[in-house]
Amino acid sequence: MKLTKKSHACVRLEKDGRTLVIDPGAFSEEDAALGADIILVTHEHPDHFSEERLRAGMEADPAAEIWTLRSVAKKISAAFPGQVHTVGHGDTFSAAGFDVQVHGELHAVIHPDIPRITNVGFLVDGGRVFHPGDALTVPGGPVETLMLPVMAPWNKISEVIEYVREVKPQRAYDIHDALLTDLARPIYDSQIGSLGGAEHLRLAPGTSAEV
Questions:
Q1: In degrees rounded to 5, what are phi and psi of residue 119?
Q2: What is the DSSP string of the chain?
Q3: pTM of the model
Q4: How far apart are alpha carbons 18 and 7 in whole angstroms?
Q5: To 5 degrees, how large is the angle CA 181–CA 185–CA 191?
Q6: Alpha carbon of 34 to those of 38, 49, 121: distances in Å?
Q7: By the 8 A CB rule, do 132 and 158 touch?
Q8: Residues 66/51, Cβ–Cβ less than 8 Å
């Protein structure tokens, strides 16, 4: 499977000529959803969910479909009739040759005064890749490649390290990194790499790796 990192929290997975895109949000490239057979959206925050990005992808391929939680589906179902599927924790589905399990229910706590919204993570092909969205959800099974949210208003590096330890992936690739400056990256690379217990990797936007 080919993994391509897009800006911030968006990733593309490709195999057997089919493409799955997760979280083409407003912090990602304008063409982040182009070429997708299926699009997964973890939650409604604009850095993960952009109707403009989704519309571009759906207009490029009228057969494309979106899988997301109820809060996002309510916003876009009318724009893409028959192409939006609502999922929640514990659901499983297959689309475009990918098998997907849904894990998690709530966004991580930003501040006690801010109500928590819903958030789901997507486990692809039996654990080959897990994207948790904006939460430190542990899927409860083997994970080969963890998409690791390294920098957000709702986390700190000690929590990120403990999350890697708990999930125990073979490797962890940074996502949710648009707020992380190049000056700080060596600190994160060193501490997560030495303390997390898994191979810690980083892809520049637009670059790919085989997973």
A1: -160, 135
A2: -EEEE-STT-EEEEETTEEEEE---TTS-TTTTTT-SEEEE--SSTTT--HHHHHHHHHH-TT-EEEE-HHHHHHHTTTSTT-EEE--TT-EEEETTEEEEEE--BPPPS-TTSPPPB--EEEEGGGTEEE--SS----SS--SEEEEE---TT--HHHHHHHHHHH--SEEEEES-TT--TTTHHHHHHHHHHHSSSEEE---TT-EEE-
A3: 0.97
A4: 21
A5: 145
A6: 10, 15, 22
A7: no
A8: no
Torsional sign, CA 129, 104, 107, 170:
negative
What's the pLDDT tens digit per position in 48-65?
999 999 999 999 998 999
CA distance 89 to 143: 17
Write down the residue that tokens 């979106």 correspond to.
66
**Regarding beta strands 129-131 and 121-124, do their DSSP bridges make them parallel or antiparallel, or are they unpaired?**
antiparallel
Residue 127: its pLDDT value, please?
A: 96
Contact 1, 10 (CB under 8 A): no
